[in-house]
């Protein structure tokens, strides 16, 4: 088997596992694809390949989560629809908006998120028993649209943002929050694919084996997340935020 295919499969499996368990699989997969795929390949097909594979892994993980964890479907479904529309709009605005200015803003937001999560030891550790209020329902719709737009426009950290919103503002535990975030992530991935596929930005010879590896990683990652429980996800969430902070901090530093 070609060494590039082996590296592709290992990357896809690792990214799918990481994304399903704690999120942030794109941090591993996207840089790896730029090194594994032919150097002559343009950026758009690489992003298309990544998005298709990520979609397969996310769908797999989402299916595993929602089969065993109760999620707020009444709020999630309309929020997912708004996220889909907002994500597609964001993807179409990438060429016109100065995305680089989002990195310092996201850096500050993520620092605040990790400090808040660390300081609140019981955050996301208690299973919510009550139904959402009308105010929370509205906030969920707004959050889905806002984060969906961010995902289409920029992307990194979307899963972490969604999980934090569900834990902080809806008082869900990390398992329910992660499952809910995955549902919305699926729709934002579909929104991106509805742009990449019709425009021919996916090289299927690379996308299909990567997607298969992502799918397998998603199965293993979702199993580990549910087996590890809320404490595992809280630790993984903070670790992922620290990685994101390091990446965004380095990117911002290099612009000066």
Could you characterize what this model shows?
The chain is an all-alpha fold and 256 residues long. Helices cover 79% and strands 0% of the residues. Helix 3 crosses helix 9, helix 4 packs parallel to helix 6 and helix 4 runs parallel beside helix 8.
Report the structural category. Answer: mainly alpha
**Number of DSSP strand runs:** 0
Look at the structure and give the mean pLDDT.
82
What is Rg?
17 Å
Overall form = globular
Segments where pLDDT lies below 50 for 5+ residues? none
Helix percentage: over 70%
* Count of alpha and pi helical runs: 9
Largest sheet: none
| SSE order, one letter for each helix or strand | HHHHHHHHH
Comma- or semicolon-separated keywords:
256 residues; mainly alpha; 9 helices; 79% helix; 0% strand; globular; Probable membrane transporter protein; TSUP
Quick summary of this structure?
The chain is mainly α and 256 residues long.
Question: In terms of topology, how is this protein built?
Answer:
Elements: H1 3-21, H2 25-36, H3 43-68, H4 73-93, H5 102-119, H6 134-153, H7 158-168, H8 174-196, H9 204-255
């Amino acid at each position: 088997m070609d060494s590039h295919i082996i590296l592709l499969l290992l990357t896809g499996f690792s990214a799918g596992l990481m994304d399903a368990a704690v999120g942030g699989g794109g941090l591993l997969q996207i840089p790896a694809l730029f090194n594994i795929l032919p150097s002559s390949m343009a950026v758009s097909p690489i992003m298309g390949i990544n998005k298709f594979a990520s979609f397969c892994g996310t769908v797999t993980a989402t299916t595993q989560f929602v089969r065993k964890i109760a999620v707020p479907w009444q709020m999630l479904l309309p929020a997912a629809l708004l996220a889909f529309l907002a994500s597609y709009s964001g993807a179409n605005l990438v060429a016109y908006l100065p995305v680089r200015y989002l990195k310092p803003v996201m850096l500050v937001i993520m620092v605040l998120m990790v400090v808040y999560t660390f300081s609140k030891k019981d955050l996301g550790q208690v299973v919510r028993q009550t139904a959402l209020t009308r105010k929370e329902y509205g906030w969920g719709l707004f959050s889905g649209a806002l984060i969906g737009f961010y995902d289409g426009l920029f992307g990194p950290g979307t899963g972490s943002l969604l999980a934090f919103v569900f834990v902080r503002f809806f008082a869900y535990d990390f398992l329910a929050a992660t499952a809910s975030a995955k549902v919305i992530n699926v729709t934002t991935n579909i929104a991106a694919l509805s742009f990449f596929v019709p425009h021919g930005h996916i090289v299927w010879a690379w996308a299909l084996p990567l997607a298969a590896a992502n799918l397998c990683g998603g199965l293993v990652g979702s199993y580990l997340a549910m087996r590890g429980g809320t404490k595992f996800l809280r630790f993984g969430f903070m670790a992922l935020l620290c990685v994101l902070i390091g990446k965004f901090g380095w990117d911002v530093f290099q612009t000066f």
